[in-house]
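Reopening this ticket.

The earlier resolution said the output was attached, but the attachment link was broken on my side. Pasting everything inline this time so it's all in one place.
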Amino acid sequence: MRRIPLSRRSHITGFRPVDGEAVEHESALERDFVLLVNFLDACAVIASQPITIEFQDGAQPRRYTPDFLVVWSDGRTELVEVKYRVDLRAQWVRLRPGFVAARARARENGGRFRIA
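Inline output:
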């Protein structure tokens, strides 16, 4: 699990308590995602930045760390990237290879990857 660094900009970092555990977040959007997951399924387990995926982007080795791993109470598992739509559109070309790698990793482990 990657440690979330202290903020040097104006974005919000912190911890959101969920079922006795503290889930780290790096933005208000991520904080709200954790709150929503907990509201939708109080028994869901949420892990912040659970894995770093190493992959090749052409000849370039790269790494990508999804924001969350959610294990729902019915057993479904999701790797989740939380992004503002405007940021997703602006950075799509750079982000897409990591998303493809995350989708493949999730499928290998019987889960799915999604962007929220």
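Reporter confirms the inline version is readable. The chain has a mean pLDDT of 84. The beta strands are 14-18, 21-25, 45-48, 53-57, 60-64, 68-71, 77-81, 112-115.
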